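Q: Sequence in, structure out?
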Amino acid sequence: MAEIAIILQAARLLFSSGRDKTWFGPINAAVASVHGIYASPWIATIVVAVLAAVACFIDINLLLVVNGTSLVVIYALLCVAAFVGRRSGTPMAGTIACRSSRSRPSSLSWR
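A: Exactly. Output:
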C-alpha cells in the first residue's frame, strides 16, 4: 500500500513542478494539466506510474547504484544552485530564507 502512496506523491511533485513552470513550455502544460471531472493530475500520474513500472524490470543492484548516485548528484546541484544564488545577490524568489525581514509584520502571524 505504501507504494501507491509514494507514486501519488511523486505524481503530485511532478505536477507541482509543471505548475511552477520548471520544465519547458509543452512539458509544463502537459504535467500541470488536471482531469476535467476528477481534478487530478492525470498526465503526471501516468508518467510516474510508467517510470515505476519500468523500474520493476531493472536489476536491484543497478537500481541501488543509480538511486544512490542520483541522490548525490541532486544534492550537489542544489548546493551549487544555492552558492550561485548567494554569490549573484539575487536570491530565489519565494524561499523562506530569502524573504525580507523588513516586511510589515502580520497581525495574524500565527497562521
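The mean pLDDT is 80.
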